[in-house]
Design goal:
Elements (H helix, E strand, L loop, with lengths): L2 H30 L5 H33 L4 H19 L5 H11 E7 L5 E8 L4 E7 L11 H13 L4 H10 L12 H10 L17 E2 L1 H8 L3 H9 L16 E2 L3 H22 L1
Antiparallel strand pairs: 1-2, 2-3, 4-5
Helix pairs in contact: 1-2, 5-6, 6-7, 8-9
């Protein structure tokens, strides 16, 4: 390395140090910001992203210069790297690659992961890749109780009002889930939550409810759960998570399954698959 190259490398290194400091300062300002102040948070987030992009561009430029000084990769080695990239997805998912190797690959690709809690029950995950690109996703997480959610009281009031009007538990849970509400321990309103709120409010089910009557050739959720020997909550979960495709009867305001429907066959298949998986886990 000649004197000019050394001087340029030193100047570039100092520039990278300055950009890293600015990016770290922008990150601290964003992390210390009150999440309730959305406008300020968005502006600080924008400044942080600008700082990160400037840093990544400078790092990439520096790496390109170093590669040029070191010389290009041999064609054979370059081809091997490209082939490995196309096989990575299958290697990752088919069990041939252990967790230790996966972690090493992730550390190679990821610069940092930033977590922020905008509100109870939610975590914002921001992955900052070595390339400077960012991937963001909001995840639903469990909380201690329904009241710990920002809208927990609203959910209880809605369940109570709908239960007093005589609506079935499954219709209440399905409707509120469709409206975007969730429980404290799952990303939807479960039957058990509706039942608990109804019991706490001392609201009894109508003893003459058609849910208790057996109509020839069809099943309600409770009747189907007894037939399959599974919990009522499990049947409802398969519906709400769209593992089976079925819509409620708008007239009777509940889910009705024809005795010879393909949905019942699919529920039987899902139940058998889960039982097989549990048996294998117990055996291991």
């Amino acid at each position: 390395m000649n004197k000019n190259q050394e001087t340029l490398r030193k100047a570039k290194s100092q520039e990278l140090q300055r950009l890293r400091y600015e990016a770290e300062r922008a990150e601290r300002q964003y992390q210390l910001c009150d999440p309730e102040n959305r406008l300020v948070a968005l502006e600080l987030e924008r400044r942080w992203e600008i700082s990160l992009n400037s840093l990544r561009e400078a790092e990439h430029s520096f790496e390109v210069r170093l590669d040029a000084e070191a010389g290009a990769l041999p064609p054979k080695l370059l081809e091997q790297w490209r082939a490995a990239g196309t096989q990575l997805r299958s290697l990752w998912s088919d069990g041939r690659m252990g967790n230790a190797h996966k972690k090493r690959i992730v550390r190679t690709l990821v610069d940092k992961i930033v977590l922020k809690q905008p509100q109870p029950g939610q975590i914002e995950v921001r992955i900052i890749w070595k390339s400077g690109q960012c991937t963001s996703k909001t995840l639903e997480v469990k909380v201690g109780s329904l009241r710990a959610l920002n809208n927990g009281e609203v959910i209880e009031e809605k369940i109570t009002a709908m239960a007093r009007s005589g609506l079935a538990d499954e219709w209440i849970a399905f409707t509120l889930t469709r409206e975007g509400y969730r429980g404290s321990d799952r990303p939807y309103i479960g039957l058990s939550l509706v039942q608990r709120v109804r019991r706490d409010a001392s609201i009894k089910l109508d003893s003459n409810s058609n849910a208790r009557r057996k109509t020839e050739g069809e099943f309600t959720i409770p009747q189907l759960a007894r037939k399959l020997r599974v919990k009522i909550d499990w049947v409802f979960e398969q519906i709400i998570l769209r593992k089976i495709s079925v819509e409620p009867d708008q007239t009777r305001k509940r889910f009705i399954f024809a005795a010879d429907s393909k949905e019942i066959e699919e529920l039987e298949r899902l139940r058998n698959a889960e039982n097989t998986l549990h048996t294998k886990r117990d055996a291991s």
